Amino acid sequence: MLPPTLYSKAEVLAVLNVDFARECCEVLAYAVYTGRLTETATGCAVAGRGEKAVLHSLILGQLIADIDGCLVGGIDEEEAFEQAVDVPDPDWPAATGFHLRVRCEQLRSLAWVGYVERLRWLVQDKE
Length: 127
Fold this sequence. Notes:
Shape: elongated
Radius of gyration: 15 Å
Helix content: over 70%
Largest sheet: none
């Protein structure tokens, strides 16, 4: 068995910012889809997913702040709209869950167990 990889705080903050941007793209996508599917059962389901995406992005943003990091870069609106097509794909939550599980291991390598617990909740909510 290979020893666990150690990550620097800067590396973990950089990838958490990527995850935050991914969640923001998801929020944008669900906002667009909800607007187009208003007053339908599908529209209500999409709105519920959008609300969860907002909560997830807030949790990630707070986690970054708690690690004494800051949100950097933001999202490219054009790229976000291009990714919006992928959000309804059933593989999107699984891919996001995978990224968050990797983040849990990275945080664990820094002995930040309390932060791991917060991300673990997000992983479970994605699956």
